[in-house]
């Protein structure tokens, strides 16, 4: 265990001899032994011993010492006002942080001030706005399995403590639940004891009290969100995961009412949605592109949301596209209506820009951390609601009409905040200036008294000058002595009797009068009481708002859905998307485009028709557009099931149950057994789980092994999917033999990517005739395009010719490298025509030897390219 966590040995050794304050520290370290304890001392958070070393190192603050009767301890601290960024740094460094605050007024305390941990900040339970990304959910997840008869069932629950979103779902295998978990991309995960930490996760893994996973304890815990937890969850695994997670959330949020906004547990039924595992999400570039960044992604293209609520919902919809056609059509109807009603759409989007993140605001209110500005922000959002309702008044589609009917503007709450809170209040809620005039008579009276008192004092100087005849008499105020009347020394004779001396200065004396004193006390008392009363009134208002949490959450849901629908409509109009038809048995897309690649390129649209033949083998040279084509089919299908329009001029689609992708291995040229093993494991999952209703994308399956094996595997996979599974499948391959399957199997068609021009026209000057058209066409591509690509990449002409020669020898034939199909009877090119091979003398002898030994048939295309590249380097080196 990290020595910075738990009670420091150096202190614990002193047992009862420790000072009371250090005893408190050690006890808190003991209780929160998985977190680094930050211990409030006045205006600082301090850490001691090993924890101090961590704080000093990570936060770059001085390591000092604290000395007491028992010894000298290393100490390091950070000012409370910069705590948020310090906590963030510690979280980034992999620590959880327990914030121990003084929970008693230092002046009122007898003995040592009482301290308690008010928050345990962990990556998955952060609630501070500064530490949260605005439009993204921040989940902590919990994994558990079923006990007893449900064995073999696994569940994952997630909660976003900042918004109160709380979900649970299950799967019937470890892999399945792993996929679920990856889909949520949690920042932190709590594992049930039975996993014994053996899930290899990307996020922080937190051990948690095994008792919380007991079925009974979990059920009791869930009663705060569901009166009969069993009615919401499907099995014990879900009960344990959700219950233990709520217990963990409570462990981190110790303030009263801190979880009041976690009001409901939503169960996601896996059968309700289109399944997309993490591999599919990644290879399709939904949330992150292959290089791991979040630009050039589908989300990036779609995210034209107006508010954070909408963005989070858009992400949720993309993560969980629907399978229920009625629900999809309902979304599509709404999007369609908004694409036509451009005024309504733009007005709606405009209004939604004024909507604050009320989901998080509700969380802040229920943690009793909301200040007056937060409440005003809430009111600003509520002010927009009637306008949104008005904007939607003419809409017909069911979702929009229902949203309009559901929109509860919480007029009571809005009225209350409007009456109670000033328009531009300060952030501090204890120092007055928060409650509006007219809201509370007592407060107004106190304020009037204070004001009158101040006015009386303001007029005092004038009155006293007149009364005493001392023109230089002045009235002032200072922190120490309060109000005073100042008279310069030459005028002291004229000072009236009732003046009492308060202070003597070099050239003057300061006095007060009984009336001035009385007024002063009155002003002070009234202001203090007014501030205190304001604070109390504010808390009452906040309490009242907190009581409306569920209505506010319902409003947030409706606004979020409206924003997402308006966004999808906006994106559809901007990018010329069309409404997909989802009542078909197979996929037929006209002029389909890749929503991300089409940005910033002259994109060539392509058709796809997989109705008669549901399996397409796609050939074509590298870089011709095979992967893009396959991905665009999957993305169009995904978008359709999200309820979005799609980039095509027409899309007739089925509703699919799952999208499988095995793409992208081309970036991984490491080869070797482990890659091949992984490829085969993934393939097993596809063959095992795919159904007739699935969409399967396979890219160069089998390439991790020798050509013979690879080709055999690819063929067997094709036959299996074709004969047994019947899934709609796109299979990109370099194995030309596979293309022949199109003739052998009824349900397989062969497509290829065309290349324009005659590669033989290349004269080595760089003006080769080959251009990628990115157009898909019937039939298979010529096998020698790989070599043409090598030529385009700059491999010397002589090597290119030699490669062509070798291919011809290996295959026993030589094909012209044109984009014609492999029709029999094509003119054969004479093999080994050395006269075109250029200056053979320029080839280093060892390269010739290497070429002669090359067993082309046993190389994968990428390996062949790598070998060509090595050869090219030899030439370059020789030339230099
Ligand atoms: N329809 C298209 N219109 C315009 N550009 C396209 C199109 N399809 C693909 N491209 C561009 O061509 C490049 C290569 O595409 P892609 O990666 O799909 O080829 P590939 O045949 O799968 O190649 P490899 O076999 O090497 O994986 C991409 O960078 C893309 O920008």
TrEMBL record:
Q: Which residues form the DNA mismatch repair proteins mutS family domain?
A: 694-710
Q: List the keywords (alphabetical).
A: ATP-binding, DNA damage, DNA repair, DNA-binding, Nucleotide-binding
**Sorted alphabetically, which Pfam families does this protein's record hold?**
MutS_I (PF01624), MutS_II (PF05188), MutS_III (PF05192), MutS_IV (PF05190), MutS_V (PF00488)
Q: PROSITE patterns, alphabetically? A: DNA_MISMATCH_REPAIR_2 (PS00486)
Q: Which Gene3D superfamilies match?
A: 1.10.1420.10, DNA repair protein MutS, domain I, MutS, connector domain, P-loop containing nucleotide triphosphate hydrolases
Report if keyword DNA-binding is assigned: yes
Residues annotated as binding ATP: 620-627
Protein origin, superkingdom: Archaea
Output the PANTHER family linked to this UniProt entry.
DNA MISMATCH REPAIR PROTEIN MSH1, MITOCHONDRIAL (PTHR11361:SF34), DNA MISMATCH REPAIR PROTEIN MUTS FAMILY MEMBER (PTHR11361)
The family note in this entry says:
Belongs to the DNA mismatch repair MutS family.
- Tell me the function of this protein: This protein is involved in the repair of mismatches in DNA. It is possible that it carries out the mismatch recognition step. This protein has a weak ATPase activity.
Please give the name of this protein.
DNA mismatch repair protein MutS
Which organism is this entry from? Halococcus hamelinensis 100A6
Gene responsible for this protein: mutS
């Amino acid at each position: 265990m990290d020595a910075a966590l738990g009670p420091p040995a150096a202190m614990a050794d002193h047992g009862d001899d420790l000072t009371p304050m250090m005893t408190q520290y050690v006890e808190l370290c003991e209780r929160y032994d998985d977190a680094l304890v930050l211990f409030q001392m006045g205006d600082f958070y301090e850490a001691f011993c090993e924890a101090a070393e961590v704080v000093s190192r990570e936060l770059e603050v001085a390591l000092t010492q604290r000395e007491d009767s028992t010894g000298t301890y290393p100490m390091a601290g950070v000012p409370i006002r910069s705590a948020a960024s310090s906590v963030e740094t510690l979280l980034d460094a992999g620590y959880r942080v327990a914030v121990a605050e003084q929970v008693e007024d230092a002046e009122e305390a007898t003995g040592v001030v009482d301290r308690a941990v008010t928050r345990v900040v962990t990556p998955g339970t952060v609630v501070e706005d500064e530490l949260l990304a605005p439009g993204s959910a921040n989940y902590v997840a919990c994994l558990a399995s079923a006990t007893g008869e449900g064995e073999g069932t696994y569940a994952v629950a997630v909660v976003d403590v900042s918004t109160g979103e709380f979900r649970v779902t299950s799967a019937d295998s470890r892999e399945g639940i792993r996929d679920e978990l990856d889909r949520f991309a949690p920042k932190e995960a709590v594992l049930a004891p039975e996993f014994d930490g053996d899930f290899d996760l990307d996020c922080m893994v937190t051990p948690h009290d095994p008792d919380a996973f007991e079925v009974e304890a979990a059920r009791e815990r869930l009663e705060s969100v569901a009166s009969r937890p069993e009615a919401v969850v499907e099995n014990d695994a879900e009960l344990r995961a959700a219950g233990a997670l709520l217990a963990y959330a409570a462990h981190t949020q110790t303030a009263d009412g801190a979880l009041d906004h976690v009001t409901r547990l939503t169960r996601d039924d896996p059968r309700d949605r289109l399944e997309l595992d993490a591999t599919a999400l990644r290879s399709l570039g939904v949330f992150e592109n292959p290089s791991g960044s979040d630009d050039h992604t589908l989300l990036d293209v779609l995210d034209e949301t107006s508010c954070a609520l909408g963005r989070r919902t858009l992400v949720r919809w993309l993560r969980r596209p629907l399978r229920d056609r009625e629900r999809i059509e309902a979304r599509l109807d709404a999007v369609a209506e908004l694409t036509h009603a451009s005024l309504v759409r733009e007005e709606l989007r405009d209004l939604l820009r004024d909507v604050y993140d009320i989901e998080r605001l509700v969380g802040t209110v229920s943690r009793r951390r909301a200040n007056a500005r937060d409440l005003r922000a809430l009111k600003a959002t509520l002010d927009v609601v009637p306008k949104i309702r008005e904007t939607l008044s003419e809409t017909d589609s069911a979702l929009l009409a229902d949203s309009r009917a559901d929109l509860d503007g919480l007029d009571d709450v809005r009225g209350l905040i409007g009456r109670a809170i000033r328009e531009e209040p300060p952030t501090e809620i204890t120092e007055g200036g928060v409650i509006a005039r007219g809201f509370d008579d007592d407060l107004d009276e106190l304020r009037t008294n204070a004001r009158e008192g101040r006015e009386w004092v303001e007029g005092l100087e004038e009155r006293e000058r007149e009364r005493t005849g001392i023109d230089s008499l002045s009235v002032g105020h200072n922190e120490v002595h309060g109000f005073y009347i100042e008279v310069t020394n030459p005028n002291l004779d004229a000072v009236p009797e009732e003046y009492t001396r308060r202070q003597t200065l070099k050239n003057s004396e300061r006095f007060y009068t009984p009336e001035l004193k009385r007024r002063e006390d009155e002003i002070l008392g009234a202001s203090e009481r007014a501030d205190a009363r304001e604070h109390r009134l504010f808390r009452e208002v906040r309490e009242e708002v907190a009581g409306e949490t569920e209505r506010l959450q319902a409003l947030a849901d409706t606004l979020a859905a409206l924003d997402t629908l308006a966004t999808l409509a906006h994106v559809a109009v901007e990018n010329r998307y069309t409404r997909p038809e989802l009542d078909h048995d197979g996929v037929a897309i006209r002029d389909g485009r890749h929503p991300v690649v089409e940005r910033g390129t002259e994109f060539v649209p392509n058709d796809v028709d997989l109705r008669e033949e549901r399996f397409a083998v796609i050939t074509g040279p590298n870089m011709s557009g095979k992967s893009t084509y396959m991905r665009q089919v999957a993305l169009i299908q995904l978008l359709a099931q999200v309820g979005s329009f799609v980039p095509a001029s027409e899309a007739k689609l089925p509703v699919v149950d799952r999208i499988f992708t095995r793409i992208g291995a081309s970036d991984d040229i490491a080869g070797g057994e482990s890659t091949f093993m992984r490829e085969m494991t993934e393939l097993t999952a596809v063959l095992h789980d795919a159904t007739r209703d699935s969409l399967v994308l396979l890219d160069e399956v089998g390439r991790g092994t020798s050509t013979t094996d690879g080709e055999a595997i690819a063929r067997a996979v094709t036959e299996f999917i074709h004969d047994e599974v019947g899934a709609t499948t796109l299979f990109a391959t370099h194995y030309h033999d596979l293309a022949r399957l199109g003739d052998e199997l009824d349900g397989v068609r062969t497509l290829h990517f065309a290349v324009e021009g005659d590669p033989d026209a290349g004269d080595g000057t760089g003006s080769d005739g080959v251009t990628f058209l990115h157009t898909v066409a019937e039939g298979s591509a010529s096998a020698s395009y790989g070599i043409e690509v090598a030529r385009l990449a700059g491999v010397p002409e002589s090597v290119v010719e030699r490669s062509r020669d070798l291919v011809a020898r290996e295959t026993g034939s030589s094909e012209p490298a044109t984009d014609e199909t492999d029709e029999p009877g094509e003119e054969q090119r004479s093999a080994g025509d050395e006269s075109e091979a250029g200056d053979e003398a320029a080839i280093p002898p060892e390269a010739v030897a290497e070429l002669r030994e090359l067993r082309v048939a046993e190389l994968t295309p990428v390996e062949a390219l790598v070998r060509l590249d090595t050869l090219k380097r030899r030439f370059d080196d020789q030339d230099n």
